[in-house]
Each structure stands twice: as C-alpha cells, then as structure tokens.
Amino acid sequence: MKIWVDADACPNLIKTVLFRVAQKKQLLLVLVANQFVATPPGKYIQMIRVSGGFDVADDYIVQHLTAGDLVITGDIPLAAKVIEQQAHALNPRGMTYTKQNIGEVLAMRNFMEEMRNAGQVSGGAAAMSNKDVQQFANALDRFLTAAKL
C-alpha cells in the first residue's frame, strides 16, 4: 500500500505528520504537485512534480494508484475518483471519504460552490488548527491500524 498526497494544497502540518508516519511504518509516501514541495530525506518519501494545469496532479494520482492505496486530499471530486478505483481517501482534517458518504459530500460541495458563485457565501475553510492536525493524525492511525500496518 502507498500513501498518495495531493500536495499542492496539503497543509505543511499535515505533511509533517505524514513524513513521520512514512518513516515509522516504512510505507511509501508519494507527494504529487505541480510545484516543488520540500521533503525530508528518506527512502520512503517520494516527490513527483507534474506539469501545471487544471487537475494534472489529481489525474496523475488516479492513473497511478492501486486498489487499497490511501490518498490524502481535500479535493472532493478527486476523492470520488479514488473511491471509484477501490482505494481510500482521507482529508487533511481527518474526514474519511467512503462509498457511503461521498455522494452527499460531493453534492454539498457543489451546492456551496453554486452559493459562492452567486455571491451568497464567501470565504473558505477556517485555518488549520492544532485540533485539526490531531484529528487527522488520529484518523490516519485508525486507518493504518485497521489495515494492520
């Protein structure tokens, strides 16, 4: 199993958690981005830089993941594609996307995008807090424990 990271928008605090877990559990961590992302040295950490463009990193992840892999992303359409590929998706705030919830989450995302486009809603998610980082770390630990890793 590999852990893939949609690294363009992944918060640095979350990447730090992932770097530690990759080394400790000896799991391959693959960060995919259209810009350089600094990574610590380590044989379990790989950085792949793709060309710029809409969804290029997302498409790379979907094309190269295998069933059972884990993808870290806040991109809900990417999470839906990951689930279609029989892989797993976890967002940086610790929410696990599943076959059971992805339809509802995607519908809410689309609704909120329509509201923003109509000027009814502004702003985005709150800044990442220590509590968010802890929730992510706990969700990742639960996933890895269930996968017996």
Spatial sequence of strands, sheet with the most strands: 3-2-1-4-5-6
Separation, N- and C-terminal Cα atoms? 9 Å
Q: Could you tell me the strand content as a percent range?
A: 15-25%
User: Low-confidence spans: pLDDT under 50, at least 5 residues?
Assistant: none
Compute the number of helices. Answer: 5
Order of helices and strands: EHEEHEHEEHH
Relevant terms:
149 residues, alpha/beta, 6-stranded mixed beta sheet, 5 helices, 44% helix, globular
Task: Walk me through the structure.
With 149 residues, this protein is α/β, with parallel strands linked by helices. The protein is 44% helix and 16% strand. The chain has five helices and six strands. Helix 3 runs antiparallel to helix 4.
Architecture blueprint of SSEs:
Layout: E1 2-6, H1 12-25, E2 28-33, E3 45-49, H2 56-64, E4 70-72, H3 76-84, E5 88-90, E6 96-97, H4 102-117, H5 130-146
Helix pairs in contact: 3-4
In short:
With 149 residues, the chain is of the alpha/beta class.
